[in-house]
Amino acid sequence: MGPRVPVRRIAADYAASGRRAVRVTLVAAAGFYLFRYGLDRPTAATYALFTTVSLGGIARTPGTGRQRAALELRLLPVCWLLVVVGTWLSVRTWSAVVGMLVVGFLLAFAAVGGPRLAGAAPGLQLLYILPSFPPYAPGTIGERLAGTTTGLVLLVAAEALLFPEPSPPPYQERAARAAGMAAHCATLLAAPPHALTDADARAAQETGRRLRSQTVPEAERPAGPGMRDRALAHTGLAARTLLSRLAQLPAPPGGHLGPEVTAVLHATARLATATEMCLSTGPSPVAPYEDLVAARAHLSAVSAGPAPPTASAPVPGARTPQFAPAVLRRHAAVLEIADAALAMGGAADLAAHGRHASVEIVQGRFWYATSRAPVLWWHRVRGHAGRRSVFFQNAVRIALALTAARLVAGVDTLPHGFWAMLATLSLTRTTMGETWSTIRVALVGTLAGALVTAAALVLVEGDTAVYAVLLPVWMLFAFTVGPVKGVGWAQGLFTVLVALVFAQLEPSSWRLAEVRVLDVLIGSAIGAVFGLLAWPRGAHDEMRYAAAELLRRAAEIVVATGASVAGPGIGGPPPQAPGHRSLQHAVVLAESAYAQFQSEPTPFGGPARGAAPRHMDWQATLMAGHHTLWGSERLLEPPLAVLGPAAAESAGGLGDRVAARMLLVSAALDPAGDTPTGPLPPIDPALAGFTVEPPGAPRLYYAAVSWLESLMTDLARIARGSADTPAQGASGP
Q1: How far apart are CA 28 and CA 552, in angstroms?
Q2: Rounded to whole angstroms, how far apart are CA atoms 539 and 101?
Q3: Are 242 and 335 in contact (CB under 8 A)?
Q4: Count of CB atoms within 10 A of residue 385's CB?
Q5: What average pLDDT does this structure show over 205-216?
């Protein structure tokens, strides 16, 4: 016996699908009956019904009804364009095939714009498939557009007005709560005993966890290419980092912080409070931001120690340390807290006020702040226009499958050929294993639906009144049960549904059921072929490759940053370590692969030879990438102090060791044919020798060591795999 499913969960699933089914049924039936029986316009009736079914039933746009209504209203011009282009290109099979290749790819690739566009794409694909088949009738474009417009407008009204759903907390509100929690923690740390209670630490960790994408509803995730979405995602990342670093700050020995550290923590608390207000439609946090900048600069100067007289200074910028190593470590940790708070405040101002933001931001970190929307879209598209992007892979796979289905339907003059394309669209999955499993269940469901259809057509014969009465009842049942019971039930119920529709448009016999089975068989076979030929393992292989590539790029950054910190006197340090843009691109590709990876089952045929296990902590690789970028930028901010021979050797050696460790982990994640496959120890046994504190090391040394140790923590988490998964949120983004 399988695991029991809670009754409440089943009831909740049926309630959600039932509300959606009522909306789709009311709109589809109203539009279809209006044009079919009221105005005697069967073409308009067909398009009114299929527009509603496409965007209301087949599309899975996340969000509440009002959010879906807003998106569908904006998509109305796109729907008009699809109908017109599909109609004109259906004149010849070759033009229809070329159009299907181009439009199919563009619609699928639109998923780079965020979860809502990704959810609407299948519905738009079906809306284009319908007019791309004969008859070539440009004279009916008016009817087709009228039906499309009527169906979509009625659907928008139904989504907005019928069964309103409670809106989940938006991501901006979650980020505001995180800022408020950071203010609370910073205030506690600034006052004796300068430590968080266990309850406060757990609350900070839980608040940061709520900012992770997997805990946020799809419609609320800031995943779009626009400036506000990018800034909001940046706000969440900075807030998680700030909370984790506040929670990890230990109590000072002797119970004394020092006035400079206390000032930074108080300024951090004020900026976090102002950030919370800014995210809640408040003013820009300009004054608290500037206060924290000043407090941070003062602590950095004090921590670096007094500069010796110019005449006796052997190297420009050299400082004489005056604090014990434990104090310097605390200074480095507090400066990291200030950096995270400043990043959070600047990003929140951009997210809340856009181009009217008042905080003076760091251009390198917020590169998107001055870019226009078309430029940001171009950055997003260009970043995924390659074979290593799962968005690109999915678009190529579905475009080629739909093109092949259209070619087969056109060459063989397949009756109701768009049913074959609908099967290809709905049954093709991102992995071959999932595609094959889906096809088997779908064929069984289609065969059962065909038997019911044949029996109904034989018994009722040509009495369209019976079909007209049965259509809304069956549609309500199909769209309520199908999404809950799975693809087999959905295909079987939809088979009967399309028969009830076409029996009212033209005389039909039991052979319509036979055609439906044949079309689904052809469409599913085409989907299986392209699922096998085009990246059959989906994001599983790409996740390994993307994570390994990210760590290789991060290793380059670590080496370059270590060299700049260890020897800035030779020609002056570069403004940033080379390769930052490459690492940012690697992080983007890894995040998109991880998002798809979470929704896929085990790959067809099991894991590839030498592949990393599925329970690997892939999110830790993303954390390592973000930590590498942020730490490198922070350490290379001028002016840089001179470490001295002993500190430079220690920091450089530790950086090289961390980079080598990154390369070993990357090889273990994505091994080549001759890569050793032995177990990777989670802790580097040679690391202890590199952590000996050189005498007289300046604050910059301890900042570099703190950064490198956080990267080693991320690498250890990757090596341990799922054994450390519950703790992965405690160390930052």
Answers
A1: 53
A2: 23
A3: no
A4: 13
A5: 81
